[in-house]
Amino acid sequence: MDSSASVVLSSPCAKLPNLEGNHGNIEKGGVAPFIDSAFLQKQSQVPTGFVWPEADLVSAHQELNEPLVDLEGFFKGDVVATENAAKAIRSSCVSHGFFQVINHGVDLNLIKLADDHLDKFFKLPVEEKAKVKRCPGSPYGYSGSHADRFSAKLPWKETLSFAFHQGPNPVVADFCKSKLGKDFEETGRVYQKYCEAMHNLALSITELLAISLKVDRMHYREFFEDAHSILRCNFYPTCQEPSLSLGTGPHCDPISLTILYQDQVRGLDVFVNNLWQTVRPIQGALVINIGDTFSALTNGMYKSCLHRAVVNSQKERRSMAFFLCPRDDKVVKPPEDLLCIEGMTRKFPDFTWSDFLRFTQYNYRPDETTLQKFSNWLLAADNNKHL
Ligand SMILES: C=C1C[C@]23C[C@H]1CC[C@H]2[C@]1(C)CCC[C@@](C)(C(=O)O)[C@H]1[C@@H]3C(=O)O
Ligand SMILES: O=C(O)CCC(=O)C(=O)O
Ligand SMILES: [Fe+2]
């Protein structure tokens, strides 16, 4: 990735980039208005700011042939089924940090309802969406192509992100009601329920991950019990020249664990065996990918999944990514019994999620090397402490 695009603009309120360029003329005035799908689809060609480097645009080579992990036996306490699921998960996570689950226990009607409510927000006039615009330095709220943060390699998408943690107050429902008004009360209730279901599934997945790693099966579940997670809703409009742009560029999620719902429009690619491979959408399945923070919790034994989202010229695409994140001040380090079993030396320094999140929002645009860059940054800061 070119370094110019990797450093987040220091002034978060930077002017929107001038998208003038040989890939399309922007409405007069040079600086684009607030960018959303309606704006993007009005452009006769892909604006320069949205054109990605060729290396990131390599087409997917094949369809990912990934076993579906059936969770039914695990939920029923079936020892053999649990062992089989753990074995499948271990093999995928050691290799590329990605698997899919079925019989996950999340009500499929709730997932459908959450998908249906996406357009209620994303089809609003941009001025309405701007009312919940993402604040500088925060991953929460609305963003149109991150055009307020980056000046190149802009993603062909709009996003809406909610903060979620379990507790007496329905934080997601409250956010929608207070920020978007009465018309979005039902939407808020749907996403509140969706986040609660995702949180519970995420804790179950962390238990199965612990079993697969042969550590105390409650270790990670207890670590994430009081998680402060993020629900990221993605809307990918159709693109005039899909071979030039990307919905979400190649990256590893800095968070711990992602539970992704993708609709029936292909778009998710995963990098496996040095090839981009497309993930065929499977009705009723949920995608699970290991993020940087969980990889660090396994001392790098489980890979943080390198993935991207491509766009197309025919169909809009929608996805919802539930990002499991530990409470801010929890120290991220692998369990002692894992280090003993594997006789490992530490691969990453201790860190907190709040420091890592801040790094991704202020210092470094997440890509495929975020965790390594963050580790180097921490160690350099430690080494310079005495200066
Ligand atoms: C901590 C986060 C930063 C991002 C949202 C969550 C987890 C995934 C990250 C992201 C999607 C990785 C690709 C780049 C990014 C800027 C994006 O395209 O949205 C990242 C998110 C973000 O920084 O808002
Ligand atoms: O939309 C997708 O399929 C992937 C989105 C993603 O990777 C993300 O939001 O982190
Ligand atoms: Fe991602």
TrEMBL record:
Residues 226-326 form the Fe2OG dioxygenase domain. InterPro entries: DIOX_N, IPNS-like_FE2OG_OXY, IPNS-like_sf, Iron_ascorbate_oxido_reductase, Oxoglu/Fe-dep_dioxygenase_dom. It comes from Prunus persica (Peach). GO terms for molecular function: gibberellin 20-oxidase activity; metal ion binding. It catalyses: gibberellin A12 + 2 2-oxoglutarate + 3 O2 + H(+) = gibberellin A9 + 2 succinate + 3 CO2 + 2 H2O. The keyword Hydrolase does not apply. Pathway: Hormone biosynthesis; Plant hormone biosynthesis; gibberellin biosynthesis. Belongs to the iron/ascorbate-dependent oxidoreductase family. GA20OX subfamily. PROSITE patterns: FE2OG_OXY. Keywords: Iron, Metal-binding, Oxidoreductase. The keyword Membrane does not apply. One of its GO terms (biological process) is response to light stimulus. This is Fe2OG dioxygenase domain-containing protein. Its cofactor is L-ascorbate.
